[in-house]
């Protein structure tokens, strides 16, 4: 495993676009999370100008609800697209520069090659989760009065949900990269599916006329986003009637992991059957 990671790190060090996109991801993630409360309350102020009864401001950063709020905003489509694109570039560059062929010639098996990419995905997911956990904890402690240890731990399982979200969305990107093998085409089609195709499918399949049992929540990307469905904002429940999520469910985690396992299996089969 260490040997495979060393090989991957040697490749990554030469990819300037990897470091640029990674830097942009952390920049937008940090700014977005720090400004989320301000932007929401600004929207509330604008709405209050037209409402007879003003809506109260929301507070996102106090424990224990900050775990849910931060993970929700950190797993929006517009944020997840950055690590997904990074993975696509890492995969497709292997075919563009023929490094996958060279690795196999040098004795690396196709299973080891795929395993090395999955190790990078795992490492990225763990690293981002640890950094987000530390940042969330600091932010929560700073905004919470009468802090107790139980408040720190309560709802912290949402970070497990964030880790699964990061892991599975990158596996989806890996799937596109391996199947299409072209950087531009893979990024374009993945982005198209993420932002346009699946949202259209979601609302089409959600119609009771089309599917009375509503299978739309089980679409691949939507299954990932449903791990953390809503931020813990009481006004969503009081005014919009939304049942706020209390915890990350085991079922919600298993569905995207199941999709990921299927995609990895297809990628391995394609690697074995297709020429490099």
How does this model look, in words?
With 276 residues, the chain is mainly alpha-helical. It has 12 helices and no strands. The model has no long low-confidence stretch (mean pLDDT 86).
> How much strand content do the residues show?
under 5%
Number of domains: 1
What's the end-to-end separation, in Å?
23 Å
Major β-sheet profile: none
Low-confidence stretches: none
Please count the beta strands (DSSP E, at least 2 residues each): 0
Shape: globular
Number of helices: 12
Please give the radius of gyration in angstroms.
Answer: 21 Å
Q: Could you state the order of secondary-structure elements as H and E?
A: HHHHHHHHHHHH
Mean pLDDT across the residues is 86
Short key terms for the protein model shown above:
276 residues, 0% strand, mainly alpha, 12 helices
SSE order and pairing:
Blueprint: H1 2-12, H2 16-48, H3 66-74, H4 77-96, H5 99-105, H6 110-143, H7 149-153, H8 158-180, H9 183-206, H10 220-225, H11 234-238, H12 250-273
Summarize the entry for a quick read:
With 276 residues, the chain is mainly alpha-helical.
């Amino acid at each position: 495993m260490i040997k495979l990671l060393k090989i991957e790190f040697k490749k990554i060090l030469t990819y300037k676009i990897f470091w640029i996109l990674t830097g942009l991801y952390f920049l937008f993630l940090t700014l977005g999370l720090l400004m989320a409360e301000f932007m929401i309350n600004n929207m509330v102020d604008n709405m209050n100008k037209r409402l007879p009864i003003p809506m109260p401001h929301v507070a996102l950063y106090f424990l224990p609800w900050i775990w849910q709020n931060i993970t929700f905003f950190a797993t929006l489509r517009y944020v997840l697209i950055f690590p997904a694109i990074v993975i696509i570039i890492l995969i497709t560059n292997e075919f563009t520069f023929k490094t996958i062929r060279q690795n196999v010639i040098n004795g690396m098996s196709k299973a080891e090659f795929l395993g090395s990419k999955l190790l990078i995905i795992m490492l990225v997911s763990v690293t981002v989760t640890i950094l987000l956990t530390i940042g969330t904890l600091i932010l929560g402690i700073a905004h919470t009065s009468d802090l107790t240890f139980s408040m720190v731990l309560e709802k912290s399982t949402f970070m497990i949900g964030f880790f699964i979200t990061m892991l599975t969305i990158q596996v989806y990107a890996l799937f596109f990269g391996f199947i299409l093998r072209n950087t531009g085409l893979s990024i374009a089609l993945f982005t198209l599916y993420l932002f346009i195709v699946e949202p259209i499918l979601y609302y089409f399949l959600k119609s009771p006329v089309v599917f009375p049992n509503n299978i739309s929540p089980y679409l691949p990307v939507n299954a990932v986003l449903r791990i953390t469905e809503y931020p813990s904002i009481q006004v969503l429940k009081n005014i919009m009637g939304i049942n706020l999520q209390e915890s990350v469910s085991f079922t919600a985690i298993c569905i995207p992991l199941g999709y990921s396992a299927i995609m990895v299996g297809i990628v391995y089969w394609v690697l074995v059957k297709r020429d490099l």
